[in-house]
Structures are given as C-alpha cells and as structure tokens.
Design brief:
This protein is an alpha/beta fold and 271 residues long. The protein is built from nine helices and twelve strands. The longest helix is centred in the C-terminal third of the chain and has 16 residues. The structure holds 2'-monophosphoadenosine-5'-diphosphate (ATR).
C-alpha cells in the first residue's frame, strides 16, 4: 500500500484526498491519500517521512509552496524558475520536487476556451500559486500582466518586461471593463470577502478564481450576478492533481481517468 498526503494550513477544506482516493479506487490502485495540517517547524519532519518511506509523495498547498523549497534535494528546473513547488517525492534516495499548478491552470483555461494570448491580464496575488499562474500566462503568450499584491514588494520582485507590479489597493487605475482578472490570493476561501472592490466588476470581463471551495466565492458570485464569464479553481485543481499522480507513478495514469465523473463527484462535495 502506498501513502500520499497533502500538507498545508489551513487544510480542512482541501479536496485532494477525495480526488486521489477516488482515482485510486476507480483504477484499482493500492494506495491511500490523507490531509495533514502542518506547522512551519514540522516541514522537515514531513520530508523525513518521505525519506524513510512512510510517505510516497506529497502535494503542498498554502502557505508552503515556496518555503518548502529550502528542504529539498532537487527542484525541477521549470519549478525552480517559477519559484514554487506543489508535488514532492523520493527518487534514488533524493527528495525531488516539481510544480504541476502551471500545467493545471493552462489545461483549465484551454478546456474552458479562455485565451489570454496577446491580451492584458490582471493577476491578484504574488504567492506560490500566483507565481505558477504568471508562468502559465507567459507560456500562453499574454502580452502584459498587471500583478497586484497586498505586499507590494513581493509583486515588485517579479517585475519584468511583461509583469507590471501594483499594490492591491491601486485597482481602480488598472482594471478595465473587458479585463481578464485572476484571483490567486486566499481571500474568499474561508470568508465572504472579495480581493477587489466589486464595483470594478463588469459583464464584459472574464473572472477566474483559483479557489474551488467554496465553488462560488464572493468575487465569482458577483461576477455571475452581473453576467460576466467566470471560472472557479476546480478544473485547475483536478488537472494539477492528475499531473501529480503521473509524476508519482511514473506513467500516464491520468489518461485512464474519467474527468467528467471525477469532477461530478468532487462538485457534489462542495458548498
Ligand atoms: P499560495 O501558495 O496558495 O499562493 P501564499 O504563497 O501564502 O499561498 O500566497 C497567498 C497570497 O494571498 C499572497 O499573494 C497574499 O498576499 P501577501 O503577499 O501580501 O501576503 C495574498 N493574501 C492572503 N491574505 C490576503 C488578504 N487578507 N488580503 C489580500 N491578499 C491576501
């Protein structure tokens, strides 16, 4: 029996165990997946559990996608350039890591016919998930990315030819009536708050939230109410999870998974 887990804090709303255990059952794989709420000082202990074989692999979620990089033997070069990891395993007695969020986000955009190429895109949040999404948007050919973050210095650190940093309160100057706006912050996950002033939302915008639980954050709820196109984080979440499975098992298990059935199963668990 193989053992996997997602680590983070808070972790109670994560559907990763539901996703992975559903796949294990449907593909008849002898494995189990749990969620573990860890404190910063317990990260090393988790890595130790992978080293000694108690855990065969982990996913990493908020707020550890960046800081866990200090404890790893090897980081995939793409994940290194993104600056965050969400998938860890042991290989040849080394603890290696990768990032599947960027791929999950690209697949989610593609399957929902959202094309950011040659467009100006607004990204809210410059944390671990935000960095993956910046990478995805560049891969897809976004022309300009306005990056808004509460801690302005973190957005400023990511400034380049395409990424233009702003403080999160400066939204009025940059949000247009036809913007693609992507929330990568945790605002709305455990409360009814929106990461930006709802007055700035318009029905010609495309509004995307990486949060999938609740399935409709205040940000998306208002967008739906005014008739904007919206997308929550569930598709991205499923695609990043399936990509993690392929890395852990070293084969394309994801191709055998019925995406629609899995999504229906997970959607029923969301409020
Ligand atoms: P993740 O790995 O999920 O991206 P993270 O790295 O902790 O988690 O990043 C969380 C993001 O949400 C950051 O952009 C954070 O802003 P700061 O860089 O200023 O911390 C943002 N965030 C969290 N709580 C917020 C709040 N109450 N208001 C605005 N932004 C918030």
């Amino acid at each position: 029996m193989k053992h996997f887990a997602v680590i983070g804090s808070p972790i109670e709303f994560s559907l990763s165990p539901a996703l992975h255990n559903w796949v294990f059952k449907s593909l008849n794989i002898q494995a189990e997946y749990e969620k573990i709420n860890v404190k910063n000082e317990e990260l090393l202990d988790i890595i130790q559990q992978i080293k000694n074989g108690e855990l065969d692999g982990i996913n990493v979620t908020i707020p550890y996608k960046e800081c866990i990089m200090d404890f790893l033997d090897e980081i995939n070069p793409r994940a290194e350039s993104i600056g965050s990891v969400n998938c860890i395993m042991k290989s040849n007695s080394k603890i290696i890591s990768n990032n599947t969020d960027w791929y999950g986000f690209i697949k989610a955009l593609e399957s929902n016919h959202i094309d950011p190429s040659d467009k100006e895109v607004i990204v809210l949040g410059a944390g671990g998930t935000g960095k993956s999404i910046l990478f995805s948007l560049k891969q897809l050919g976004a022309k300009k990315i306005i990056l808004l973050n509460r801690t302005f210095e973190k957005a400023k650190d990511l400034q380049d030819k395409i990424i233009i940093p702003y403080p999160l309160y400066d939204t009025k100057h940059v949000i247009k009536n036809d913007s693609i706006i992507i929330n990568t912050t945790s605002v709305g996950m455990q409360n009814n708050q929106s990461p930006l002033d709802l007055d700035l939302l318009h029905n010609n915008q495309i509004l995307i939230d990486v949060i999938y639980n609740p399935k409709e954050t205040a940000f998306l709820k208002f967008g739906n109410k005014i008739g904007a196109k919206t997308l929550n984080g569930l598709d991205m979440f499923i695609y990043q999870g399936l990509a993690s499975l392929d890395l852990w098992f070293g084969e394309s298990l994801s191709k055998q998974v019925n995406f629609i059935q899995l999504k229906t199963y997970l959607e029923a668990k969301l409020c």
